[in-house]
Fold each of these.
Amino acid sequence: MKQKLLLLLAISCVHHKVKSQATDTTGTNQVMYFVSDTQQPMLVERLWLKSNHNIKATAGIFASILKEKPNSLYMLGDVVGLGASNRKWKKVDIFLDSCRRGGTTVCGILGNHEVMGLAKKGEANFQKRFPMNVSTGYVSITDSVAVVLLNSNFTKLTAEENEQQKQWYNSTMASLDTSTAVRAVIVCCHHAPYTNSKIVKCCSKVQDYFVAAYIKSKKAQLFITGHAHAFEHFKMMGKDFLVIGGGGGLHQPLNEKEKCLPDLAIGYKPPFHYLSVRRINEKLIAASHSINDDFSNFSTAYNFSTNNPEADNMAKAGNASVDELKKN
């Protein structure tokens, strides 16, 4: 009974927020920005991955976002290299304060680096910067687009918390599908369900807990993650999955062998990038912005429009089922 009351309260808050944003767009740029893995490279990572002016790249991404002043910014984990270190947050604090003073709403979700080492202190430091965060999932809405933000640090949650998040997520996705105030849904977590990275694997737990409800949803059109430090675009069961881990971490090589997952962005592999998404009617327009070789500016070299979720929600010919994908 208590869980049902909490769910109803959460959905009512979502509907109220949609209404307030949809009726007052004067002076706002109704676009959502997404960035992931802005952490400073750790010494141990440099033993097997090459650095490439990573801190400078992150500074460039932050400067570009501040210049554009999006309505909302979503930081998808690994914001800093070590969440428990107060020193690691100094530059991020300046950036977050500048975003909010400029009118940008900033939301975040926990990555593995936030809970690395002293997990409780790291999570407490994260919560100070992102007070709206709920460790078992929450919703943020911009221009009638609901962004569902999930915690994929499953080993840091208790069995009860993992089950609580799963139930909340499934119920929320079903409720958003029936809400007249929500026109599209984006799902986000840190760990990628699908990736060709040679450093990190496809997250089977994300597949088990989060993918099915995303595929089932009539309005969900994008599943965006980080963790793998690369840009990847997969089409699974008629739905789009993006990996956007190019916020400044050390670039990870990708598997290019025959058994790798089919990547629609095979020719687009910038080391540093962030994503913008805007809504046009019921479709979403996604664009990846990558830093130029001289680190002086950004270019938009990859963009696409999502399919109509009502007409193209189920699996297309040639796409594997969830069970088949889990075997990879």
Amino acid sequence: MEFEIESPKNITELCKTIKSYRSKSFRFGAGYTDLLMELKKHTPRNLTVINLAQLKDVSFSSIRSTTKNIQIGAMITASKLVTDTRIEQLFPVLQQAAHNLASTQIRQVATLGGNMCTASPSGDLICAAMALQASCEIMNDDKKIHNLSIQDFFIGVRKTALKKNEFLFAINIPRNKKRTATLHSGFIKIGTRKSMECSVVSLAFHLQIDKTGKIIDAGIAIGASAPTVKFAQSACQFLIGKKINSFSEKEKEEFANKVLSYASPISDIRATAWYRKEVLFNISKGVLE
């Protein structure tokens, strides 16, 4: 496993480095929790890794509040997401997903951007961000930024819409509709063992409930159930306007079937497609119980 390393110190240097390697083979590295495993299996010839760990840029490595969004820099670690009080209070689903990511040691170095750009169908942080209907802030090597919805960011198994001269700068999560809303928000991860495991099935949910108990907004996403993490739009629409504590058994099953309609799981060494569907149906029902 041999490769060269470039370590730009700021965004300007990073953009210049990307430009200089446009016609060459390069990868980005931050926490290296996924990249090193990949390169152990196969390292392309004449590969350069652009090391992001030395970058000094506040926006790239911080959590900032705006009037409309919470902006999370791509270099934020899973550990920071676990301990940040704003994330815990506003978006429990993201805090729980980060807490479920691998081990304590890996969470110290694994980054939001790395998890997003690996684009695994079982990505824990991806699933939570999808449920929160985040948008992706993308910068190119001319330092120009454009935004892309998270649903459009993922285009296939381990494939994103990023071009070679672009990188994920941050994600923006819209603020909850009402500050007084009660949240029913969480992340459910089913694996074959308790720790250090990719999901067999995962489900992220973020429901906002008004003072009368009515659901005023909903975000539901499923992981490890299709080629990409999926946002269950029709299941979300089914919930809007209904009382959180008044679902009949029939309605719970209808909701679960709507979630299941977005799943197209495969059978692999960890689980069969049949098992994944059964588990997804049951945990979906459980969201309303």
Amino acid sequence: MSKGERWANQQRNLGLKIIKSNDWKPLAWIFCLTAGLLVWARQASPLPVLLADRYLPGGGFVEILVLGAYAGFVGQVMLNAPRTARIRARTWSLFSLVFFVQFILGLAGLERMLMTGDLHLPIPALILAGPLYRGHGLFMPILYGSTVLLVGPAWCSYLCYIGAWDDAASRTRSDPPVTIPVWATHVLRPFLLAAIVCIALVLRSQGASVSLSAGLAIGFALSGAAVMISLSRRSGQMVHCTVVCPIGLISNLIGRISPWQVRIHQGCTLCGNCTRACRYSALKPIDLQLGRPGLTCTLCGDCIHQCPHNLIGYRFPGLSSSQARTVLLVLVVSIHAVFLGVARI
């Protein structure tokens, strides 16, 4: 038996042992983290951040219990499912649906559906460009930055309200996905990031009107939607997230220094199963030979259970592959449930 085969068997057996013997512990952590973060947000904010408190005073605690139970259910399913890609896509889509339904209802006149009543365009690029243009308003950059520090680029594959659309668009292709050229992800995205920063600073220095700035932001959002509808659907890859989104690039760059990593152990046969499963074009043949995904990896985990030899897994210092997967899922599922409760415009 080769070294790679021994490693795969150890990870498989250890993972099964952890799930079967300590099944309740990750779920308890998920519930406590979700409830604790929501209680802290409820107490720290000067505004009622939970919808239940806005419609029924004191109802926030009920919402916290419901979201904690929901997070525990999602965690139970994901930790024990042989493959998590479909479950992740569905929970991710649920968050995006709830987010935009609240946004639309707020636009329709139900102002309590909005966080503050002040309208901000739900475009990921504005997480960075908005504060640069306004000169204030760091809530979203702080929320984004703290989340990325906790779970690395998994923000893109579990928590971004726009990314769920690109994921859904890419899944309409039944044939194997088309590989995205390296220049598109390594050259075009940095150019777009630099352009957005420069445009935001120029608009601010020139005292540009809000209507002009909003028009440019809407134009960028519509171009991104066009990329999803055309390129992502046809290629089977998340072209918007890997080529267009500047926030995605920041997540990927931080992911390079994050303790959370995906690694490919020695013994890979280059069968390509993981490459076909990856919608971020992060597992090209050269990446497999190097033993790690490319820059665009978001820790989604869709590739892990596609490897017939169990040679792909998460890595975190001091943890086995299966333990790292469990801890990462505890964190992302908890944050997902928290965002479900408080992420509003």
Amino acid sequence: MPKTTTRRSTPKRPKVLVPKGNGILKTVLPNGLTVVLKENHNAPVATFWVWYRVGSGRERTGITGISHWVEHMLFKGTQKFPGRTADQVVSREGGQWNGFTWLDFTTYFETLPAEKIDLALELEADRMVNAPFRPRDVSSERTVIISEKQGGENNPRHLLGEEVQAVAFRAHGYGHETIGHLCDLQTMTREDLYTHYRTYYTPNNAVAVAVGAFQAQEILKKIEKSFGKIKRGPAISANTTVEPEQRGERRVTVEGPGTTSYVELVYHSPAAKDPDFPAMVALDAILAGASSLSIFGGGTTNASSRLYKALVETELATDVGGSCIPTMDPYLYGLTATVRQGYTPQVVEAAFDQEIDRIMNEPVQAAELAKALKQARASFAYGSESVTNQGFWYGWSEVFADYKWFETYLDRLTAVTVADVQRVAQKYLRRSNRVVGYYLPQ
């Protein structure tokens, strides 16, 4: 069993930063833990999140999928909360909890009645340091994760997305899926997993976020008590990998079972902090329909979007969608369509290209942009209205930028102009900047 935490002899109170007017309390504890608190008394509930700045984007060949696997291991219990005890305790108190891993982060959260939020602090502080990684648990979870990966390979969209993502990146860790490569899942050891845990699951690599019906100064004292005694971990070096500029269109074809073809186009796109990102969101809303940007959904119908009219209403495709997601480093703007029976991927690609050329060469109408921005704002609002979703956004924003990114996002989106949309279309939707993928049923 790993050793329990040790206390500092003379802990110093952190200097609290309280920006005026937005109700956010942010501070950094002496051990490096960033804390972001937001009071919200609209309902008698509170949510608590712990974010670790590590995801599949930092992984190298040989240990791909390790962040996701470590996330699974932290649901195996500790000496204090053995087995499924934590799950049972949270449920008994009327709460929910979960965790997930993606490109830039691994995170865990609990949402509970406000008076029970101390349980979340206790649980997360415990598993930050006391997960045992028992060999039998590592073995059983290996089977679970390999089964999960193999299940995804039965989905044509998944297979196509995996290939397109791999072709899009030559250097950056964004090129492999979060679940990792099968060969790595088969060979990683308990020591690999535990080293990853002890390296990245540390206060100085973490962000604690609480949103809900509490007094900020009071819950800060509780967070200090629960987490302040945990020692700093090793210094984490910045990810310095820069994906080289793509110098020509890339194509990939995936063959597999089924009766349906799919088309996917991805374009290298700006990171969340890039000034071009809000304009890309507006571009996506015009082309494919607004989305909330959040993993919790909240998107509205895309029936009024250009691509829906060009592909679905003409019956070339049964559906069409877009994906514009905030990330720490430049990632991908994606467009996908399911080819209707009787048509070919080439015909659908041509319809995509016609609309992409149009938005590159012809300025959108001011009324169309205003409508798209209204939909994008509404979708974002729907995806961030609950305390759980707000906890998600404050934490995620701290990972790829800081909480102010979330606070000011709608203002920056509203400021997008017609000229901005055409400019980013011409900059990012070039054919030389994209990967085209076909899924062809055998």
